[in-house]
Write a structure and sequence with these properties.
Layout lengths: L3 H5 L7 H8 L4 H13 L4 H10 L10 E8 L5 E8 L11 E3 L30 E5 L10 H6 L3
Helix pairs in contact: 2-3
Length: 153
């Protein structure tokens, strides 16, 4: 007996490549589509559980230190954030991720060329973890939905 996905020729295997695609999906819609695609292929539940538990495979080629990145939401608002990857980062190790929800949310959003964090990043975060410092400003503070959507890890 064939599943509907097999009859349509849309066979998806529960393998590491698929799990990586699922974990790296850039939107909730993309994750839901991938999930439906996988479920239609009727994977072995034990294999799927083990793959999801293992998590994605991370590249050895990672920029270490501080990087300022951004995410743009569906309404076009850009949300800058800083990520600090430890110098001793190894992709095979599980790393805690620390989000620093700092004060200063009453300050205006800085311009594109301005550093939004005026202090040293070394003063925040703990050793042995990846640190994320998102920017907040009046109208886009931590407790609002738009900002919370930006914090999806």
């Amino acid at each position: 007996m064939h599943s509907q996905a097999q009859e349509l020729g849309n066979i998806v295997s529960a393998d590491q490549t698929f799990v990586n695609r699922l974990w790296q999906a850039d939107s909730e819609t993309a994750r839901l589509e991938l999930s439906e695609e996988l479920l239609m292929s009727q994977p072995d539940p034990t294999e799927l559980y083990e793959l999801l538990k293992k998590g994605p495979h991370y590249s050895d080629e990672v920029t270490l230190g501080e990087q300022v990145l951004s995410r743009t939401n569906s309404s076009g608002t850009e949300f800058p954030y800083m990520v600090k990857i430890p110098e001793d980062y190894e992709p095979q190790r599980q790393w805690p991720v620390e989000f620093v929800l700092h004060g200063g949310v009453g300050r205006p959003k800085p311009g594109a060329e301005e550093n939004f964090w005026q202090r040293s990043y070394d003063r925040i975060g703990q050793p042995g973890r990846i640190t994320v410092v998102p920017l907040a400003w009046p109208g886009v503070v931590w407790w609002q939905d738009e900002q919370a959507d930006n914090l999806v890890a």
